[in-house]
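Hi P.,

Sorry for the delay on this. The queue was packed all week, but I finally got your sequence through. Input first:
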Amino acid sequence: MSSRRARRYDAAPIFAALGDRTRLALVTKLSDGQSRSIAQLCADAEITRQAVTKHLHVLEDAGLVRSTRAGRESQFELRPESIVQMREYLDEVSRQWDDALARLRAFVER
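Then the structure:
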């Protein structure tokens, strides 16, 4: 498998995880660089603590957040490197489309 294809498969869980409104909101809350407990992340949520926990585990499995234990609570923080990787993937796809459109334009204008 080419490295490009490998990156595509690595990006899929990230896009799938961010495709949910609740998970996207959790990532947005964590995007300020501060780690937060589940209780803090549930403060204004319209879903149960258990549901938030499940969403956090999906984000963790996708590599978007990491958790650490602090006493009896888990603290969650955003893994910014996963966002950078996702951005690099999107930039690569954008370049591919730009190249394909340039070839099409050159073909049509002949």
